Amino acid sequence: MTIKQIAERAGVSVASVSNVINGNYRKVSAETRKRIEDIISETGYTPNAMARSLATQESKIISMVIPYIGEYFSFNSNPYYSELIAEVEKFVRAQDYCLMIRCVERCRDIVHMLSSWNVDGAIFAGAASEEIGDLRDSLKCPAVFIDSYCDKEGVVCVGIDDYRGGYLSARHLLNNGHRKIAFAAPAFGSEGVIWERFRGFCDACREYGVDIGGEDIFEVDAVESNSIIAGNDIALSPKKYTAVAVTSDLTACGIIQGIRQCGLSIPGNISVIGFDNLSLCTLSSPKLTTISQDIQMKAHRAGELLFTMIREKRELTVNEQISVKLVERDSVAKVNAE
Q: What's the pLDDT at 326?
């Protein structure tokens, strides 16, 4: 069955059938639309997506790119990415588009693929600021960058108030009497998500007269075994830390395991605060105190801005930060300030 055959059977033009298939209902009457849809349903006709893409210059595909994932990593090993992708997919699906997910080691690896697939838009999660300008200039479609920092003209970034998140994390520990505090995070430079969280953390500590030195920073990634080792190191440190602020909930859970392996308890000996407020926070023991970000709002704002650019065919410059808040549970205890 072809579009031409459907048109002949319905007694309408090929253009009318095409309008119904592509959702341009305002161009056909309700009666004609129903007649065409009934024939499509009866015959089981499925439009050729590639042919439709060539005809309309729209693929109805949005690509989501997860960068810096190497050979031995996948996005589903990190619950944060799983939750973010799920929220983006729901939003994209509601617009009658499909989401194509791609994990890459380097952002620039994806540019040619996005062009060959003729995607209508792209969402990048966690792209480095130094890459964003080149990416935006190279892409032939609108793009939104989640969890990135870039103030260039024509770039759309949606993230959270990472600085405030780090500040709230430290303030909560300090308000509970902690002065010997460790900071656990992936390697970071002088800009970006982790840097902003660290900057807020340090500013709060400074207000209480607490100095954070290089020996107080424990480098750790999302690999469970590495998080456990970091927990061992924190527990056995001669500084005898009473608390640790961690920049992700997943890593915090690994650190808790490592601390326990050394015979210490949470929060009896060492308090732990995470970041993200993922669902696993209420499944851990003890339940994890954390900094909560609204992943759904972040995904929806990214989607709204992307589809504004797609539908209105215009460039935007946006640098939007969504607020965060402290969620108190059971992993932080009050101690006597020294």
A: 98
Q: Where are the alpha helices (DSSP H) in 22-110?
A: 30-43, 49-56, 79-94
Place of tokens 């480095």: 128
Say what the pLDDT of residue 3 is: 84
SS3 176: coil
Residue listed under structure tokens 């999660």: 125
The set of long-range contacts for 316-321, using a CB threshold of 8 Å and a minimum separation of 24, is 316/154, 316/156, 317/153, 317/154, 317/155, 317/156, 318/155, 318/156, 318/157, 318/158, 319/149, 319/150, 319/151, 319/155, 319/157, 320/157, 320/158, 320/159, 321/159, 321/160, 321/161, 321/162
- End-to-end CA distance of the chain: give it in Å, rounded: 80
Q: For residue 330, what is the DSSP state?
A: S
SS3 267: coil
Round to whole Å and give the CA distance between 39 and 37. Answer: 5
Low-confidence ranges of the chain (pLDDT < 70): 22-23, 47-57, 69-76, 338
79 prior amide bond cis, ω within 30: no
Q: Cα–Cα distance between 288 and 278 in angstroms, integer?
A: 10
Q: Record the tokens describing residue 219, joined without a space.
A: 């480098």
* Residue 163, helix vs strand vs coil: helix
pLDDT of residue 118: 85
Residue appearing with tokens 């939003």: 91
Checking 260-265 for CB contacts under 8 A at 24+ apart, the result is 260/231, 261/228, 261/231, 261/232, 261/235, 262/231, 262/232, 262/235, 262/236, 264/235
**What is the C-alpha to C-alpha distance for residues 255 and 235, in angstroms, rounded to an integer?**
9
Count Cβ neighbours within 10 Å for each residue of 125-158 and write b for 16 or more, e otherwise.
bbbbbebbeebbeebebbbbbbbbbbeeeebbbb
Residues whose CB falls within 8 Å of the CB of residue 120, separated by 6 or more in sequence, listed in order: 58, 59, 60, 61, 62, 97, 141, 142, 310
Q: With H, G, I as helix, E, B as strand and everything else as coil, classify residue 268.
A: coil
Query: Residues 77, 222: contact at Cβ < 8 Å?
Result: yes
Strand 143-146 versus strand 181-185 pairing type? unpaired
Judge residue 325's burial from the number of C-beta atoms within 10 Å of its C-beta, 0-12 exposed, 13-18 middle, 19 or more buried.
Answer: middle
